[in-house]
Amino acid sequence: MAKYILLINWTEQGVQAVSNSSARWDAAKEAARKVGCTFETIYMTFGQYDLVAILDAPSDDVAAKLILQIAKGGAIRPLTLKAFAEDDYRRITASA
Fold first, then answer.
1. What is the dihedral of CA 42, 43, 44, 48, to 10 degrees?
2. Domains in the chain, ordered, with CATH?
3. Which distant-in-sequence residues (6+ apart) come within 8 Å of 34 by Cβ?
4. Measuring CA to CA, which residue among 30, 34, 80, 36 is closest to residue 58?
5. What are 33-54's pLDDT values in tens digits?
């Protein structure tokens, strides 16, 4: 499974309904499960981003579709980073 880091900001709509954020998170986890993905965790953060989530997905296509589906709800604006594990990092940089 590939790993993705989502840097998330609440939209104005998301902030106005922030008390429902936990329910939206639960719905996102269920949507992920239905397409073979898993959200490892979520953190609420201070600074440039409101939330950081870690996603495991079987492919870039599946991750992209899931993230678009969740973002269509209008409560968040995610920035997605594909993450490489340490072993992959070492292999990639060794041959550069």
1. -110
2. 2-94 (3.30.70.920)
3. none
4. 36
5. 999 999 999 999 999 999 999 9
Q: State phi, psi for 44 to the nearest 5 degrees.
A: -90, 135
Exposure pattern of 38-64 as b/e (b: 16+ CB <10 Å)? ebeebeeeeeebbbebebbbeeeebbe
Strand (E) or helix (H) holding 52: strand 51-57
The answer to whether the pTM exceeds 0.90 is yes
The single-letter code of the amino acid at 45 is T
What is the token pair recorded at 64?
């992209």
Distance, CA of 34 to CA of 13 (rounded, Å): 26
